[in-house]
Structure formats: C-alpha cells, structure tokens
Design a protein that fits this description.
Blueprint: H1 31-34, H2 37-69, H3 72-108, H4 112-148, H5 153-168, H6 171-185, H7 190-212, H8 222-246, H9 263-295, H10 300-314, H11 316-338, H12 342-369, H13 371-376, H14 383-416, H15 420-444, H16 449-473
Helix pairs in contact: 2-3, 2-7, 2-11, 2-12, 3-4, 3-5, 3-6, 3-9, 3-11, 4-5, 4-6, 5-8, 6-7, 6-8, 7-8, 9-15, 10-14, 11-12, 11-14, 12-14, 14-16, 15-16
Length: 489
C-alpha cells in the first residue's frame, strides 16, 4: 500500500535519485559521513561496549546481595520476574529501534528539526505506553504472569513485589533506553556511556542500602533491588529531561511542542520498530525451547551448569562487543544513507564486521586454548561439568566468529530501515535450524550435550550467511524515509 506523499513511512520504491550530501557543520558529527570509516565505527562502538560491561556488574551485585540476605528463592525471584519484564520491554524497545532508524537518517541529512520531532514523539509514545498501559496492567496481572511461568510459592512471594515495582516505576528505565538510542543514532555515543555508568553506580549504591538496610532504612530484600533500579533510573531520567528541554545535546525537544501526537511519525516508529520487537520475542522463545532440550539430557544438571556459565556468562564477552559494533553499524549505515552516500553505508558495515571478527577471534582463541581455566574462574570443579563446559566453550570459540559478523550486518540492515529481514533470519537461524537439528537427532538416537552445542553453532552460521547475503543485496537503497513539516510551519 502506498502512503501519502510525505508520510513517515518506508517502502520499497524504484531506486530514488541519490540526495546531495548534507552540508558540513551544524550540531551533528560529520566525521561519520565524511571521515575514515574505521575510526568512525570505533568512535561509536567502544562507549557502548564499555557501558554494557559496566552495566553487567549491576546484576552481579544484585544477585550476590539477595543470595546472601534472602537466599536462592530471592535469586530465582529476580530471574523469573526479569524474564517476564523483558518480554514486555522488548516490544516497547522496538519503538526506540524505529526511532533510531529515523534519527540516523535525518541526522545524516543534517535535518535537525526532524531529528528533534522524532525523538519527542518517541518520548510521548513511550511515556503513554508506560504510564497508561504497562504500569496498571503490570500491577494487576503480575500474579497471573507468575502463575503462567509456574513459579514456586516461595519464589512468587519474593517475585510479586519486585515485578509490581518494576512495572509501576519502569518509565525511568524506558526513558534511559530511548535517550541512549537517540543520542547514538545522532552520532553521540559518549553521552549514553556517561549516563549508563552514572545509572549503574547509583543503582549499586541504592541496592546495597535498600536490599540490606542501613540505619533507619529497613532491609527490603528482593523488593529493594527493584526499588533501587527505579530510583536510579528516575533520577537519571529527570536530569535528562531537563537537558532535553534546555538543549545542548545533539538531540533535544522542539521548543514550544505540545502533547499532541504526530501520527505519521508514530506510525513510522512502529512500522520500523515492531519487526525488531517480534524478533526479540522469537529469539527468547527459541532460547527457552533450547533449554528444554538441555534439560532432557541424561547429564542435564552438568549441561545446564555448563550452559549457564559458558553461554550466558563467558560468551557474553563476545556478544557485548558485537552489540556495540551492531549499534555502530546501524548508525553508520543510516547516517550515510541519509547523507546520500550509500557506498559509504556499505563500506562502513563491512568495516564494522572486520572489527567484530577480529575481536571474536581474539576472545574465541581463549575459549579454544584455556577453557578449563575460564570455567575455574566461576568455581567449576566437577569433572563432568568441566568436560561438558570445555566442549561448549570450544564450539563457542568458533561460533563467536559467526555471531559477531551476523550482528554487525543485522545492525546494517536495521540502520538502513530494513527491520523485517532480521526478523525472518532470526526465526530461521535461532528457532528452525537449532531446534530442528535437536529434534531430529533426539528422534534418531538420542541427544548428547555436544549435539546441542553443534546445533547452536549451525544456527549462528546460518544467521551469519543469511545476514551477509541479505545486506549485500542492497535492497535497502530503495527504502525512503520522510515526514511532513509540522502543521503551521
């Protein structure tokens, strides 16, 4: 269906004429569309990598405190509650992926007014969903959601207040995600890093006080973890709103803007973003089903322990790096396409992939050479766990090459506005291929742990091949993004 001329929609049209490069200057970093590509990619990637690593410490502190003061039921409660909340967040965060597509395109074209209007409408939409939908429904449906995941009574008792607080006061966290995405898409990755580190430090301080208590402040236990996150995110969000209103950042709120929704922009936010939300949910479902196969093994306890440490913890060293490069590739591709330089968009994603491949090779070599020592860092001493974990890490050492490459090209696709292709690629590579392999082998002669690890490798290799192939087709050149001027301008 063809949208009205000027509507904020993206459609595959006959190849449009290439726009002239935007004039240099202004508030946007023009080195992203004019300077060396390798340096531009790294400038965007390293702050995100560092933010991810430091943010990961927050979860470790939470679980350590709750585990010592509440017990394993508290750890399980946080895990179960976050699993539920993540499903909701994935859908709302898809709105911010759509925002990033528009912002990077308009920033590349030097159209600051369109950048600001897009960010403001994303803010209004996110706050409306958070305060009017997520908060009230989350409060009343939390008990039902905990029943759906079969949480034990002791776990439910700890998880219910945590989940309700998280739903009710989640708007600060959402605003942080929105602002971080907007700043990165506009070319500023350092400010989100500073905000993220500040948020993490505040969160750790609040959690230490609220989980264990201090002076007249009682110990809130598991609920204190949710309270600390809400307070930290709320403070950072409040300060960020002041800055957005005053200006001075690479993105800001339009002066004199009211609360009226701009429906063409909002439709574009969902059109670009919703496929990414569905993609995230599909991948989570695939992960849960894979865990079911691991649980069916004769050595299930050892395999689950190896998977929890090898895949969820150690492999995240590769994915944290790759996610930073994925974000950088999206911005480079979107801004250069907006500046009328599709060849630089193509070359920029290739440059990001090379950096990601080098990083994955370096980390993967450790998985191949010293897997037992890496497992020992987490206290893994059982011979069976070490044997299975060593198998897994050696497979992941190779698999990391594929997933690092796949993520950078996924970023390239999303940054240019092609958010549907990664959805279909993820369904094939993260659900159909690995689960299909496990199902067939299980029916033929029964599964071994190595069969599942190799199925994961096959899925990552498939995702890499399909992502590279789709990006190289360059159909994203035809994706057109524009919005009307505001009424009365």
């Amino acid at each position: 269906m063809t949208a009205p001329v000027g509507a904020a929609e993206a459609e595959e049209l006959p190849a449009p004429p290439v726009a002239a490069p935007a004039a240099a200057g202004g508030r946007f970093d023009r080195s992203l569309v004019d300077g060396p590509l390798g340096a531009a990619v790294w400038k965007l990637a390293w702050p995100t990598m560092l933010t991810n690593m430091i943010g990961g410490l927050q979860g470790i502190v939470d679980h350590a405190l709750v585990g010592h003061l509440v017990g394993f039921a508290g750890n399980a409660a946080i895990g179960v509650a976050l699993q539920i909340f993540i499903v909701v967040i994935v859908f709302i965060n898809s709105l911010f992926i759509g925002m990033s597509v528009l912002v990077s395109r308009f920033a590349g074209a030097g159209e600051s007014d369109k950048v600001d209007r897009t960010v403001y409408q994303a803010f209004l939409t996110a706050m409306g969903i958070s305060l009017l939908v997520m908060a009230p429904l989350g409060w009343f449906l939390s008990p039902t959601l905990l029943d759906l995941v079969n949480a034990a009574p002791a776990v439910q008792a700890e998880a219910l207040p945590f989940l309700r607080i998280t739903f009710l006061f989640g708007s600060g966290t959402l605003l942080f995600y929105m602002l971080s995405g907007a700043l990165r898409a506009a070319g500023d990755a350092r400010t989100p890093m500073v905000l993220g580190i500040t948020l993490t430090i505040l969160n750790v301080i609040f959690n230490i006080v609220l989980i264990r208590g201090l002076g007249p402040i009682p110990a809130f236990g598991t609920a204190g973890s949710a309270m600390g996150t809400a307070l930290a995110a709320g403070l950072v969000a409040t300060w960020s709103l002041v800055r957005l209103r005053r200006g001075g950042w690479v993105v800001s709120f339009p002066r004199g803007a009211g609360l009226a929704p701009d429906w063409p922009i909002i439709r574009a936010l969902f059109r670009f973003g919703l496929p990414s939300g569905i993609q995230g949910v599909a991948m989570n479902v695939g992960g849960v089903l894979l865990l079911a196969f691991i649980g069916s093994l004769a050595t299930s306890a050892a395999a689950q322990a190896a998977y929890a440490i090898g895949y969820s913890q150690l492999f995240s060293l590769i994915t944290w790096t790759s996610l930073g490069l994925m974000s950088a590739a999206a911005v480079i591709a979107g801004q250069n396409l907006g500046a009328g330089r599709p060849e630089r968009a193509l070359a920029g994603v290739h440059a990001a992939a090379r950096i990601g491949l080098a990083g994955a090779a370096l980390l993967g070599s450790l998985f191949l050479l010293i897997p037992d020592r890496l497992l020992a860092l987490f206290g893994m001493q059982d011979p069976e766990v070490i044997a299975i974990g060593t198998q897994l890490l050696r497979v992941l050492g190779v698999s990391g090459l594929f997933i690092a490459t796949a993520l950078t090209y996924t970023g390239g696709l999303q940054g240019t506005g092609d958010t549907r292709s990664p959805l279909f690629i993820s369904i094939v590579s993260q659900i159909v291929v690995p689960l299909g392999i496990c199902f067939v082998i299980d029916r033929l002669h029964g599964l071994e742990a190595l069969d599942i690890w190799l199925a994961i490798l096959a899925g990552h290799a498939t995702r890499c091949a399909l992502s590279v192939w789709r990006f190289r087709q360059q159909r994203w050149r035809r994706i057109v993004v524009d919005i009307h001027a505001p009424a009365g301008s």
